Amino acid sequence: MNQPTQKKVIVIPCSGIGKAFGSISRDATYEVTEKLRIDTTQTICLALLVSGDEESLQLVRNNKCVTVDGCPLQCAEKNVKLAGGNLVGSLRVIDVYKENRHLKPRSVTFLDPDGQQMALKLAERIAEKVDDLLGGQ
Amino acid sequence: MGKGREKKVGIISCSGEECVEGTISRVATRLVLGKLRPNETVTICLPLFLAGGREEREFTRDYPTITVDGCDKMCAKIATERYSGKPASSIVVTDILKNWQCPRLSSRRKLNDETLAVTRKVADRIAEEVDEVLRHWV
User: Fold this and answer.
1) Interface test with B, best of A51, A73, A74 (most B CBs within 10 A)
2) Cα–Cα distance, A44 to B18 (Å, whole number)
3) Residues of chain B contacting residue A27, judged by C-beta atoms under 8 Å apart
4) Residue B3 is assigned to a structural domain of this protein
5) pTM of this prediction?
C-alpha cells in the first residue's frame, strides 16, 4: 500500500462477497479512485484494516474517510470507526437503489448492466462527497 | 470436523480491494460457489467475520474452511486461525501464480481474458481442495 504524500480522501467499500450490492460498492469505489477523482482519492483493503495492519490504521486516522456499504450491517462504517479512523462520510448502496428502483442488479461475480449503472450513479455521489470534503479543507 | 452435519465447506476469500490478485481470489471463490461446487460450499464476508459476526464465527468453528488470499499478508488465513482455528486448506494467489506461466495480469477492476483464464484455474484449484476436504470428512 502506498501512503499518500498529500492528504487524500480514503474511500472504503464494504468488501461484501455474497450479494450484488457489495460488488456495486466496490465497483463504484474503483470508478472514483481510478477515473473520477484519481488524484484526490485512494482505497484500501477493509480486511487488512480490520486485521490491525499498522499502515492501514495510520492511513485512515490521518486522512478523511468515506465508507460505502452494501448491506445493513455496514461493516465498512463500523470498522473504520473501530479503527479510530477519521470518518467523515458514509454512503449506502441501498440509498441509490431507492432512487433508482427500475434498476435490478442481480449478478454478483460480474456486474450486469443494471449493476454497472447503479455503480456509476453511486460513484458520482461519492465523487460529490469528495469534492465537498476537499473544498472544506 | 463436520460433526455429523450437512457437508459444507466454508470458503473465506480476502477482500483484496488493493490488488488484482485480490480480485482473482474473490472471483475464483464466486466461481466455485456459483458453478463448480454450488452444493458443497458457502462463503463468508471477511470483514464481517473479523468484526465479530456471530453466525460467521460459529460456522467456521463447526465446519472446515478453505482460505483464499490474494497476497502474502494473508488476512483471510490469519483471521481464520485467530478466531476459529486452522483452516483445512489455504491458498495464496501470488504464491500459486509463481508456479504458473502467467500473462501480464489486468487491472484489479476488470479482468481481461488472460487474467480470467488464470482466475478459472485458481477456481479449479479451490474446487480440488474442496473435494479433498470432503473426502476426509469425519
Assistant:
1) A51
2) 6
3) 109
4) no
5) 0.88
